[in-house]
Design a protein that fits this description.
- The protein is α+β, with helices and mostly antiparallel strands.
- It has 2 domains: 147 residues, DD-peptidase/beta-lactamase superfamily (Beta-lactamase); 131 residues, DD-peptidase/beta-lactamase superfamily (Beta-lactamase, 3-Layer(aba) Sandwich), CATH 3.40.710.10.
- The chain has a 5-stranded antiparallel sheet with strand order 2-1-7-6-5. Strands 3-4 form a two-stranded antiparallel sheet.
- Bound molecules: glutamine.
- Glutamine binds next to loops.
- Its EC number is 3.5.1.2.
- Keywords: Acetylation, Hydrolase.
- It is an enzyme of class 3 (hydrolase).
Length: 308
């Protein structure tokens, strides 16, 4: 079957259910059309295939975390980032207070408390809030190969209810892990989560990690191969939070989800994948997105641990 036909088949097979529910702790996310579905794949040479509502935009949410982590690693170096954020799976939900007992470091950069800390490390030392925002805008856009824009309605909606994230920013501030103003950091982190993307963007961003840091559409080197490897490793172990083990055994693709209903996966040296469908399971992962990845992994033999 040619790829476009196959993706249409996947859409029909995987977009049939009405299980799961919309994220409602961010009021604006509860207002989206729950029946949207889109899937995209980008090859190592930058060819993108899509099916479904491929032009539908949604906010990047937690799928921004691996890219912000990549930019922090690029800007500060791996050692300096490891001093602030550990790399162990937490086994807890994305919004839990998961800190290492002795060091006080957040357990990993994929959960909120680790991502809030990582956000402070993007851009040069001493960057202002505006400079950090701009470093993120430029960096995320380089991964996508087009200028991404912030959905200010979603951003402001989340900021009005970001009580947990504010508490966590204050905790890492109190523990001496960050030195920045917690309110400023939550504002910047919430903005980081509100960039609008499509599944096409996700597939290109994903493949830019899978190639080892070069965007195959624009041919820009965005991060080094060492940074891309570190990010893929942390996605594999921590990207799906407290479902990471389940995901790695059944799907076997380094991936990251977001509460807007997107999931992207990056298979090293092979392909970038993006899926969007807003209804979520109890972990905050898209129900149909998980189903789609399971199917893609099986049909195309994408599991990282396949031995043949
Ligand atoms: N902006 C969201 C939050 O911080 C992102 C969470 C997610 O997508 N899992 O709560």
């Amino acid at each position: 079957t040619p790829v476009p036909d196959y993706l249409l088949e996947i859409r029909d097979l995987c977009s049939t259910g009405a299980d799961g529910r919309l994220a409602d702790y961010i009021p604006e996310l509860a207002a989206v059309d729950p029946d949207r579905f889109a899937v995209a794949a980008c090859t190592m040479d930058g060819v993108v295939y899509t099916a479904g509502d491929a032009d539908a935009e949604f906010t990047i949410q937690s799928m921004s975390k691996p890219f912000a982590y990549a930019l922090a690693l690029r800007d500060r170096g791996i050692e300096a980032v490891l001093e602030k954020v550990a790399v162990e799976p937490s086994g807890d939900a994305f919004n839990q207070i998961s800190l290492e007992r002795d060091s006080g470091r957040p357990r990993n950069p994929m959960i909120n408390i680790g991502a809030i800390t990582t956000h402070t490390l993007v851009g040069p030392v001493g960057a202002s809030e505006e400079e950090r925002d701009e470093a993120l805008a430029t960096g995320l856009s380089s991964f996508a190969g087009r200028r991404l824009e912030v959905d200010t309605v979603v951003m402001n909606s989340e900021l009005r209810t970001a009580f947990r994230n504010r508490a966590m920013a204050n905790l890492v501030r109190a523990g001496g892990i960050i030195e920045d103003d917690p309110d400023e950091i939550v504002r910047g982190y919430t903005r980081q989560c509100a960039y609008r993307v499509t599944v096409r963007d996700l597939a290109v961003m994903a493949v830019t990690l899978a190639t080892g840091g070069v965007n195959p559409v624009t041919r820009e080197r965005v991060v080094s191969a060492a940074v891309a490897r570190q990010v893929l490793a942390i996605m594999a172990t921590c990207g799906m939070y407290d479902a990471a083990g389940d995901w790695m055994s059944t799907v076997g693709i380094p991936a990251k989800s977001g509460v807007s209903g997107g999931i992207f996966g990056a298979l090293p040296g092979q392909v970038g994948l993006g899926v969007f469908s807003p209804r979520l399971d109890e972990h905050g992962h898209s129900v149909e997105g998980v189903r789609t990845f399971e199917r893609l992994s099986r049909d195309l033999e994408l599991h990282l641990m396949n031995t043949t």
